[in-house]
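[INFO] parsing input record for L-threonylcarbamoyladenylate synthase
[DEBUG] input buffer:
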Amino acid sequence: MSQFFQIHPENPQPRLIKQAAQVIREGGVIAYPTDCGYSLGCHIGDKAALEKIRMIRRLDDKHNFTLVCKDLSEISTYARFDNTLYRLLKHHTPGPYTFIFNATSEVPRRLMHPKRKTIGIRVPDNKIVQDLLAELGEPIMSASLILPGETDPMMDPYDIRDTLQHQLDLVIDGGFCGMQPTTVVALDSDDIQVVRIGAGDPAPFA
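[DEBUG] output buffer:
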């Protein structure tokens, strides 16, 4: 049975944020709000938790997982990009985008696309996530909470609890947090490519 924390979306309770961070550190899998629906998250280095997310989502080894980062300085530890891309990213983070980069050696191999050695990275515009990342001091390994056979992320934390309470360690209720998935932008080559149009405006990357 998963724990269920009701955390204020604008003024997150520090005590609950600390407890949520500890669940992640101890190998738990959580459902948490972002600016584009709810996501599944775990510790960046935890193989067993990663496999649990694969099982919930029914993902194969070709799926690009996402590192949810606090800011650009954290992104630079895990992704390769030049000054031109830095300026572009600065204007669009935090926000409803997932960026696909060439990964640095800091990214665990099991999180990368096995052939292209890329990693998805995003900085959500969500106070709960920002506080959780600050408490953790490192990214959250993440995947959108899209159940098998569905196309949109889950939006209702009570539905998440009812559906996945025996598979998750914690569900964070952060209220309603958007209906659309992120816009996905590939930045792993010289040509910027919009892979999926979602909540983020694709025009700056077209």
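[INFO] The first helix runs from residue 14 to 25.
[INFO] shutting down worker
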